[in-house]
Specification:
four-stranded parallel sheet; 8 helices
Length: about 170
């Protein structure tokens, strides 16, 4: 058993006492930088709860070894990852009445910003990469959030990945 935060935790949400999400929250509060959730459920509430608790990836136990490897690699590279079969589930709850919430509404610059978010970059790092101020990056993210109906970075990424706008 680790005595303190390590680089990566892979956590089964299906704990016998049902405290998987609480354990994600606890590990994040103890300084664990990367948490990958492994679950048997594609329940939208569980998927969203895992990301809101601080997980960077949500993988299904039924996933292929390639999907698991891709997810873990993405998290180790500083990004976020949703199992391809749960990305639509994650995005489904982010609809805003009166908009169609499709990533095609995004400008070229917004797509660039969102791709860097998916790669795990901070606002400052995105600004440096695109020659923008961190405040301008924050403004882009606010616009993206309004267009997609969510302020959650992981959900923005999931929507755009699902639509094939970013990788």
């Amino acid at each position: 058993m680790a005595t303190g935060p390590c680089d990566l935790a892979i956590l089964d949400l299906g704990l016998p006492d049902g405290t998987g999400i609480e354990l994600v929250t606890e590990l994040r509060s103890q300084g664990w930088p990367r948490i990958v959730v492994l679950a048997s459920s594609d329940d939208p509430y569980a998927v969203r709860a895992a990301f809101q608790a601080g997980a960077q990836a949500y993988l299904l136990k039924s996933a292929s070894p390639m999907v698991v490897t891709d997810g873990v690699r993405r998290v180790l590279d500083g990004g976020v990852y949703a199992d391809p079969s749960v990305a639509p589930v994650l995005a489904a709850g982010t609809r805003v009445p009166g908009t169609d919430n499709t990533p095609r509404e995004l400008s070229g610059r917004e797509v660039e910003v969102l791709q860097l978010v998916a790669d795990g970059r901070s606002n400052k790092e995105i600004g440096e990469a695109l020659n923008l101020s961190a405040l301008t990056v924050k403004s882009h993210l606010s616009r993206i959030g309004r267009k997609l109906g969510t302020g959650d970075r992981a959900q923005m990424v999931a929507l755009a990945m699902r639509a094939g706008v970013i990788r």
